[in-house]
Amino acid sequence: MAATPAAPSGTRLDALLLTVALTTVSVSGPLAAATAAPALAIAFWRNALAVAGLAPVMALRRRLRAELAATSRRTVLLSLASGAALAAHFGLWLPSLHLTSVASSVALVTTTPVWTTLLLRMTGHRPPAAVWGGAAIAFAGVLVLTGVDLSLSAEALAGDALALGGGIAAAGYVLIGAEVRRTTSTTTYTFLCYGATAALLLVVCLLAGASLGAGYAGETWLKLLALTATAQLLGHSLINRVVRGLGPSITSTALLLETPGAALIAAVWLGQLPPAAAYPALALILLGLALVIRAERGVTPERATVDAPLDERAEPVR
User: Contact, 156 vs 281, CB < 8 A?
Assistant: First the structure.
């Protein structure tokens, strides 16, 4: 009788789940770029649909209902502020996907660790010296990439600026979220934050005249649902699941593969190939971010928030 195969170890299972998470997160940029809806409407729907998915969980679990009812005014206000930062992130990044290449947009929006480090420094924390070297390399890559895109068109440069702004906004979201998560569960915080994000984006969509559904084809709704299920819920949840077993350093370093992953998907699916001169810039950005994350490995948990996926105290953003 053949021996029963051993069950996968915790590490192997975490590695498998991380692979699934990387795939679902990497599809976010290309899928959003391929969705025939206004960028602001995409931003609204991915958050609104996520809230709709979380609502039954909040309603059916007694512990979560009790926690939500007992939420302090401070927690609510911080969650609203975090939601505003997340709305800014999506409101800036998603439009950039229609102006510049998916590869450039994703690379620039994932510079969040650099901006988080700078914000931490401004609030009195002292990141390791090696962090500044990594930040300098990543910023040099940003300068090279924006120079390459400027040579292509002013529109591509504008897309770069929006993606970079999205990365900066995400840093604020991460830091505020980390503070809320000291006393609040991930599910309750996410419900409040995504709810605030959806409400703010709804107002922005109405003011901007962005169509929220009129004339959408069935394919568009399917893509919105797929975007919510993959990047907004599945990918982020799995990242928060594996960070306990694999640790923040391995998890966050692996997440740097989102940029080449998104670029590959965009190349195959959308036919988007970055210019040859962009590849060295993308490599510099990834190298700089890797050095920042590596240098942050030894800091205390309160100061280890260098990207949304690094710490389950704050939900990832893409």
Answer: no
Q: What is the distance between the alpha carbons of residues 67 and 76, in angstroms, rounded to a whole number?
A: 12
- Quote the pTM value: 0.82
Q: Is residue 9 part of a domain?
A: no
How far apart (Å, rounded) are the C-alpha atoms in residues 239 and 247? 11
Residue 178 CA: distances (Å) to CA of 256, 306, 316: 21, 11, 11
Handedness of CA 310, 315, 317, 318 (dihedral sign): positive
Q: C-alpha angle with apex 231: 218 to 51, nearest 5 degrees? A: 75
Residue 130 belongs to what domain range?
15-310
The count of structural domains within the chain is 1
What mean pLDDT do residues 25-42 have? 92
Any domain includes 248? yes
C-alpha–C-alpha distance, residues 11 and 277, integer Å: 38
Q: How confident is the model at residue 290 (pLDDT cuts 50, 70, 90)?
A: confident
**CA 300, CA 306: separation in Å to the nearest integer?**
12
Task: Say if 153 falls within a structural domain.
Answer: yes
Of these ranges, 70-84, 274-288, 303-317, the one predicted with the greatest mean pLDDT is 70-84
What is the number of other CB atoms lying within 10 angstroms of the CB of residue 269? 14
Tell me which DSSP letter residue 309 carries: G
For 41-100, what is each residue's pLDDT tens digit? 999 999 999 999 999 999 999 999 999 999 999 999 999 999 999 999 999 999 999 999
Looking at every residue in the chain, the average pLDDT score rounds to 83
- Buried-state track 193-221, b at ≥16 Cβ within 10 A, e below 16: bbbbbbbbbbebbeeeebebeeebeeebe
Query: Does residue 136 fall inside a structural domain?
Result: yes
